[in-house]
Each structure stands twice: as structure tokens, then as C-alpha cells.
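Re-running Protein kinase domain-containing protein to confirm reproducibility after the cluster update. Everything else is unchanged from the original entry.
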Amino acid sequence: MLKKLQRFCFSQQSCWYLVHRDQAAPSLSLEGLEPLPELDRRSSSNFYFQAQTSTLFKLVRDKYSPKEDFWRWLGRDIISKRLTGSYDAYKEFTSRRILERLGQNTVAVRCYGVALNFLNPLGSLYAMERLDNCVTGNIHFEGLDEAHRSAFIDTLSAQVIELAKAGYYHRDLHLDNLLVDQQQRLIWIDTHIKALPSSAKKRGALLDNMLTNSRINSEAYRTQLRARLAPYF
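Result of re-run:
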């Protein structure tokens, strides 16, 4: 990854970021960055798309405002994230590398970086390839018959188990955080993972939270997923 200063223009506002860029990625410019409000509404991030490079930009907004909650903004958004280098895009990039080492599919990263201006509320930048001919895991799952739904749960749980054996878990495991391509492969698009806690009680609570937030509406399939994952949590 090459490190450089780069200027981007989001919603007609020019912003400087210190970015780490993949040498093989296409050169990203200021031109043609289109907002994607339909994605913004479903997350705590702002999304933009650049058609000429087929790049999706994900910018994580600060949790707190310096005007409304100065000390929490300074402590959490500036000191704990930007100044220590633990901003969201960096965590997502390092998580992606762990998944790749396990042989799991992820989306190619163009660059990731952090805003230089502390008053820029879009502090974290993550740019990735936009994949065509894929659907979200939720849409794919809802279109399957019962036999194929059961097989999908087995495939999903096998990858989560593989990650757990390596000592990690998905921080936000649900069907909209992965894509399914035309070859029926799972592709992780939100790659935030964390180390599994040593406490059995905490691991059990994590599993409960995963199932609650999985966006799998059927109790039967959530039960199937629990049965597969429980020995590893």
C-alpha cells in the first residue's frame, strides 16, 4: 500500500485525506462522485460511487458533534480513532486481510484513509471495487427454496466457524453484510471483525446478538444456525 495525501470532493466540499492506496488499483480522481442516499439511510455512513473507476466510497461519520458534545467528540472520534490510527477504515482493512488469509472472499480495496481536518465529520474513508451481478445475502436467501436455504445456512456457518477457530467473530453479522455472486459464492462486504473474548458468558451473549441481528426471519433457520455455531462460541 502506498501512502499519500489526496483531495476528494464529496457533495461539492473539498476534503483532504491521508490515504493508503493499492498500487494495482486505478487512479481515483475528484470527478464523478455520485451520492447514494439509498445506502446512507440504511447505515451510519455516507456512500458515493464513481462510475469511471467502478469504485464505491464509504465514509463513516463521526458519532458525536464538537458543538453538541465536545468532550465525547474529542475523546472518541478524534483521540481514540483518528490520532491513534484506529479509525473505521483501518479496522475494516485489517479485518479484510484476516478473512483473505482464511481463503474467504472479500471486495478489492482501492484505498483507505483518514481525514486531516478534525472538523470534517467524515473522518474515515474506505474505497472499494463495486461488484456487478451480485445480490445481498438477504435477497438471495429469500429467493431460495427450503432445501437451498438450509444449504446456505450450512455454508454461512462454515465460514463463521472457520473465523471463530482463528479466534475472531464478525462484529455485525447479518445477511446484508455479504453478497452472493452468480457462482453462489459468499463475498463479505462489511469486514469488521474482532477477537473472540475468553469468557464463555461473553461468547454466548455474542452468539445471541448475532442471531437476533442476522436478518434471518425464520426461527427454524436461526435455530439451525445456532446449532452449528454454538460449539465454537
